[in-house]
Amino acid sequence: MNKTMKSLLVFIPRNFCIESPGYIKGKVVYDQESESKKFYIIGTQSPSRGTPKIHSDLIGYYSNSNEVSKVDKRMCDWIEISSTPSKGKKSNDYYLKSVTVDNQRIEMTLNTQHTVKIIYDQVGLLKAELFGSDDHPGNHFLELKDILERRKIEVQAKGVFVGIMESLLMYTLSCFMYPVTFLGEVTNKLMPVLKYSTLGLHVNGWLENTKWMLATVIQERRVNLKTRNHILATMFDVTLGVMALRLLLHYIGGIPPSHILLDNAEKVVESLKSLFHWLMGSPAGLKLNHSFNKMLGKFFLYHIHLWWTFLVSIKPVMDFFFEVLLLFGRLGITFQISIAADLLALVSFHTYCIYIYAARLFNIQIRGLTALFRLFLGKKRNPLRERVDSCQYQADQLFVGTLLFTIILFLMPTTWVYYSVFTTLRLILIGLGGFLTRLRFYLQVIPAYTFFCWVFRSRSTNSSVKLLMKSRDNTGAITLLMTTVAASWRDTWKRCIPDTLIYHPSIEWGVIVNNIFWGQLLYPL
Fold it and tell me: What contacts 307, CB < 8 A, 6 or more positions away?
């Protein structure tokens, strides 16, 4: 039983008119979703040696307008095309002399099917490297591009020297692939520990990016646009890293890095101590609960003292630790940014701990006030049904609830002062950390090579197609002209990001404000 066909699509190369008359090479595909038959034409084969044997690449015959038709009845799908120069135009008009689909000849004059002839740019489609698999799966031109690429690989002939150089390059890349894969597996196993360090995460990501780049080049046996852009971005990263490291070493001179870290950490500790002494008094003229304020201040001062004692105790191993960091810093500016993020987290760890204590205490008090306020309204929250139900309270319950509400309410200003101060510090620190994280990401994917290709309109940056109406003949067949075009710069840049990198999601400001109001913890951006 023949397949139902609603439309006929014929894809003809733009330079098909210069081909010699002969058998048409290509592929015939039936699209079940759109119920259309697609004839993808690639080129012609000369019939000088007689009728060829049955071959899956032969789908029709191309002739001049006055040439006798040649139909191969052994093929279930067959198309005959003739061309004549257009009047007043440099292009040619193509006419479908006959079409056979599933061994049934279709009379084109009856206009029983919707017929579309698409004149496509074969060279432009092959060079459009960003016209990839992330497009719609039913894209006809994506299917045509795959056919053209497979055909190019089959017929491409390489010289002996080129073949030797390509084999040597693939062997060299394979040798680099083994240590990169091994180190990547090691970092993946250490991920439960490395995930707490920005440098550890960056090393793992850098190995994954390198592995992706090597695997892509080996698989495609060429360096495409995305891998070229990644290689140039890596070179730019290393160059900036070497320059920044030389400038840093020149600035600090012969001073050990541990002394610089401890000096700056001591300044931070002294500033925090002064801040706590100010909060333990009457900050901004506020009258706080004296006993509760003193207790919180001494508790937080004790944590600062513990943290400073820890930093002083590890001073002997800091110099060795910094030497190891300098080795990673020579790999690029992104590694140095990761090290800076870790040092920022190390120096401000005590403020993070104090923020957690203040946030938890504030959250407990605000939830307690909310729950006790419902008591006065004769309501309580039902966690099973996630709603607030009415409830009858006894006199002793109302008394205890009123007492607790009064105590929490009068302790709330003291907690709020500490919470507001350290929430502000937390926002500054996660803002700085988020800036370093995004700066590291953008330096990894800096589109230097892609930008020049896009500015100078290289065909390699084309990622979509443009169809223009050319004509409609007396049989109702439509002729369209297809050209490849480049997308916007933002879309082009996103398509050149390595597959192993994930674009950072936008900051949810509403969630941050809600977490601040309810005392929920703020996590890194």
Answer: 269, 349, 350, 353
Among 147, 153, 157, 89, CA closest to 122: 147
User: 67-122, pLDDT tens digit by residue?
Assistant: 656 666 677 888 888 877 655 555 567 888 888 887 777 766 545 567 888 888 88
**Average pLDDT, integer, range 493-514:** 85
Query: 484, 467 in Cβ contact below 8 A?
Result: no
Expressed in angstroms, the distance from the first to the final Cα of the chain is 60
Half-sphere CA count of 120, side-chain side, radius 13 A: 27
Is the four-CA dihedral 311, 317, 323, 328 of positive or negative sign? Answer: negative
Q: What is the pLDDT of residues 395-418, one digit of tens each?
A: 777 788 888 888 888 888 888 999
Closest listed residue to residue 288, CA positions, set 407, 405, 411, 409:
411
At 432, list the tokens: 């700085």
Q: What are phi and psi of 95, to 5 degrees?
A: -120, 140
Tally Cβ neighbours within 10 Å of residue 229. 22
Please work out, in degrees rounded to the nearest 5, the angle formed at the alpha carbon of residue 38 by the alpha carbons of 33 and 44: 160
pTM strictly above 0.90: no
- Biggest alpha carbon–alpha carbon distance for the chain: 109
Token pair recorded at residue 269: 């500790």
3-class state of residue 415 by DSSP: helix
Tokens encoding 90? 């440099």
Backbone φ, ψ for residue 223 (5° rounding): -100, 105
Are the C-beta atoms of 430 and 304 separated by less than 8 Å?
no
For residue 1, the model assigns a pLDDT of 38
The full 3-state SS of 176-227, as one line of letters, equals HHHHHHHHHHHHHHCHHHHCCCHHHHHHHHHHHHHHHHHHHHHHHCCCCHHH
Contact 225, 442 (CB under 8 A): no
CA 12 – CA 477 distance, rounded (Å): 14
Rounded CA gap, 139 and 141, in Å? 6
To the nearest 10 degrees (0 to 180), the angle between helices 349-376 and 395-444 is: 140
